[in-house]
Specification:
heterodimer, A: 168 residues, alpha/beta, Pyruvate-ferredoxin Oxidoreductase, domain 3, 6 helices, 6 strands, 39% helix, 20% strand, globular, B: 370 residues, Rossmann fold, 2 domains, 5-stranded mixed sheet, 12 helices
């Protein structure tokens, strides 16, 4: 399973990869997760990656033919982010996009946090699309956010559950 | 305990479990998180040692030399330009026979500036007298730090060690690693008990000027390096007994009946393994020999593996301009081999690229760049 996540600096694209990686780890998979670094900054396009496998993971680096692309920001160029995609396309958007699974994670985040914190919500949506047990994803969110020093993760879990429900 | 950790955290775990007492440090991407992790653990009381922020990498290694000479197990880490700024002191550490251990997160050297890895920084220490280990994944970063202290502190060795991981490719990539228990590590690595210690009560000098004795001392460094080869194999065998993970100075992967052998080191090795498997599926008898201890150079073991092989391709993630890949130069001294230079500054290279390289390897000694 190869997943590529696209979004903008500040949206938690890297943390989302860690959460999804952790969820696979908790499910007993071998995992590799990492983010593309250069001179990333708020608002700039950023990319992160997850590889998960029942066997040993030998390949490294950029994922060119993902089984799932997750897009956090629908103002990014679809042709660029979908390059090489062999499977599902999951987008945070208020629009309907032909051939894509969508969820309005920004709207849900505004309802829950009063701020556009979309990454944990998108992890809930990923759980739905990949049929990962939602409770494992919640546990992964808890572990990863706590490792960043965030103590109260309740709203993040709520966002994940809400997005899980509303993916279509 | 199994956990999902990046290479930097693996290095920090290595230092913590070895109960290092002093960590002089200076930040540089992509290594800083090693030091930050130790600082965090110190705040929480999980690691009890001296944390010494210094004013430059040169000072870092100077302080590390001093604390190791005073009898404290010492650790530090650096990368790229930072490692080069230390280099004057690298020779002092090996000449003074101080078994400190450091980790390098390799990163290409400016100019132009890159944050991404190649191994020119690490390999610049080739002639420094340090023992040099290449990790291929995060587990090995942790395991090699622990092994390095055992090997370095062995009385027939007494040389400093440096463990390399590719920046980003390992330092910022999380993988599953087994973090050994403290008691296990304690049973494998006894407390550091140097026979000669700097002590204000009994003043003495270390690293003093010499005249004709100089050559004798440097030749002793060479002799200790040669000893380290045998000591490493013994320590790795004991490591396997204690922790259940097997290391050798050279890892051979499907080489026995191979006609084509890739020689490589570091994190590229796992991608090359995937290419070896793919080539085998196409009927090409491929294999891989991975150098784990670059210094001391595992000449005999490599010669054994490469003996009679039709095609040998050395894959380098480094470049000595005007000559070629740095490891290629080394392997050339024991076998006819082709060489490729790949992934400078972290330029992506995947399994299929190595499959292509393997297929192009039609003659011995041919040299091309990728």
């Amino acid at each position: 399973m190869k997943i590529r996540l696209h979004g903008r600096g500040g949206q938690g694209v890297k943390t989302a990869a860690r959460i999804i990686g952790r969820a696979f780890f908790l499910s007993g998979y071998n995992v590799q997760d990492f983010a593309m670094y250069g001179a990333e900054r708020r608002g700039a396009p950023v990319t992160s990656f997850v590889r998960a496998s029942r066997g040993e993971i030998l390949e490294r680096g950029y994922i060119f033919s993902p089984d799932l692309v997750v897009l956090f920001d629908d103002t990014l160029n679809f042709d660029v982010v979908k390059k090489g995609l062999k499977g599902e396309f999951l987008v945070n958007t208020s629009q309907k996009i032909p051939g894509a699974k969508t969820v309005d994670a920004t709207k849900i985040a505004m309802e829950i946090f009063g701020a556009p914190i979309v990454n944990t919500g998108m992890c809930g949506a990923v759980a739905k699309v990949l049929e990962i047990d939602l409770s494992l994803m919640e546990r992964a969110i808890e572990i990863e956010l706590k490792s960043l020093g965030i103590r109260d993760v309740g709203k993040n879990l709520e966002a994940a559950r809400e997005c899980w429900k509303r993916v279509s | 305990m199994k956990d999902l950790i990046d290479g930097n955290e693996a290095a920090a775990w290595g230092a913590r479990l070895c109960r290092v007492r002093v960590v002089p440090n200076f930040p540089i991407t992509p290594q800083t998180e090693i030091i930050e992790k130790l600082a965090e653990w110190r705040e929480k009381g999980l690691w009890k040692g001296e944390f010494l922020p210094m004013d430059s990498e040169h000072s870092v290694l100077s302080a590390a030399i001093a604390s190791e000479a005073a009898g404290a197990r010492t650790f530090t880490a650096s990368s790229s330009q930072g490692l080069l700024l230390m280099t004057e002191m690298h020779y002092v550490a090996s000449g003074m026979r101080l078994p400190l251990v450091m980790v390098n997160c390799s990163r290409g050297l400016a100019a132009p500036i890159t944050l991404w890895p190649d191994n020119n920084d690490f390999l610049s220490l080739r002639d420094s007298g340090w023992l040099m280990f290449f990790a291929q994944n995060n587990q090995e970063v942790l395991d090699l730090v622990i092994s390095a202290y055992r090997i370095s502190e062995h009385r027939e060795v007494l040389l400093p060690s440096i463990v390399n991981m590719e920046g980003f490719i390992l330092s910022y990539t999380r993988e599953i690693a087994e973090i050994p228990g403290q008691e296990e590590v304690d049973s494998f690595l006894p407390e550091y008990a140097p026979r000669v210690v700097l002590d204000p009560e009994r003043p003495m000098s270390l690293g003093i000027p010499s005249l004709h004795e100089y050559m004798y001392f440097r030749s002793q460094v060479h002799a200790a390096q040669r000893n380290a080869l045998k000591v490493s194999e013994r320590v790795f065998a004991e490591f396997e007994k204690t922790f259940g993970r097997k290391y050798r100075c050279v890892e051979d992967y499907r080489t026995e009946d191979a006609e084509l052998v890739f020689v490589c080191a570091g994190a590229l090795s796992t991608t090359i393994k995937a290419a070896v498997n793919a080539l085998r599926e196409e009927g090409v008898k491929a294999g891989m020999a991975r150098i784990v201890t670059f210094r001391p150079f595992p000449e005999n073991r490599l010669r054994e593996i490469l003996e009679g092989k039709e095609k040998i391709v050395v894959v380098d993630n480094s470049l000595s301009p005007g000559r070629g890949g740095i490891i290629h130069s080394e392997v050339s001294s024991i076998a006819d081999c082709a060489g490729v230079v790949v992934s400078l500054g972290g330029k992506h290279i995947g399994r299929d690229d190595f499959v292509k390289i393997g297929k192009k390897a039609d003659k011995k000694g041919r040299y091309w760049y990728f």
